[in-house]
Automatic annotation (TrEMBL):
It holds the Pfam family Acetyltransf_1. CDD domains: NAT_SF. The keyword Cytoplasm does not apply. PROSITE patterns: GNAT (PS51186). The lineage of its organism: Bacteria, Bacillati, Actinomycetota, Actinomycetes, Mycobacteriales. Residues 1-127 form the N-acetyltransferase domain. GO terms for molecular function: acyltransferase activity, transferring groups other than amino-acyl groups. This is N-acetyltransferase. It comes from the Bacteria. It comes from Nocardia panacis. The keyword Zinc does not apply.
Amino acid sequence: MVADNAISIAEAHFSENAWFRAIYVGESPAGFVMLHTGYDYDEGFDCHGVFLWRMMVAGPFQSKGVGRKAIDLIVADLKARGINELYTSYGQGAAGPEPFYKGLGFLPTGDFYGEGEHREIGVVLRW
Ligand SMILES: CC(C)(COP(=O)(O)OP(=O)(O)OC[C@H]1O[C@@H](n2cnc3c(N)ncnc32)[C@H](O)[C@@H]1OP(=O)(O)O)[C@@H](O)C(=O)NCCC(=O)NCCS
């Protein structure tokens, strides 16, 4: 399940480690990304690297390369800051984003987060 963007933005204001941006295609708002940029177990981030916390592209803009471009821009920004990896996690259901992340080169870390229907596989992209 993907959280509502308003919930994500509210959460971000309670986190010193949140970085978030809207995705625009031209003048049109098309999506949202949020990173967690530091280790903080209190927020449930048992991860020492930068973590892609939320990522969504709005329906009409999906499957047009917008998500890939957003990840490319995030990677370029992290690279410029001397960071060489990006973590994330996702649910592995049939309609889930696994093909998207696999296609970008994210690989399993061996970690899993959550339980039952909320269980997510941890993955990392390194460059
Ligand atoms: C998953 C999501 C972020 C992908 O963004 P997008 O803009 O639709 O993806 P892109 O068009 O950039 O796709 C990049 C590649 O991934 C593939 N891909 C993307 N979503 C896919 C899917 N659901 N199934 C299969 N392939 C998919 C594309 O075919 C494309 O492959 P190609 O470059 O070889 O042609 C977006 O569809 C989305 O927000 N979905 C709903 C919310 C969600 O699941 N968020 C992730 C939470 S962890």
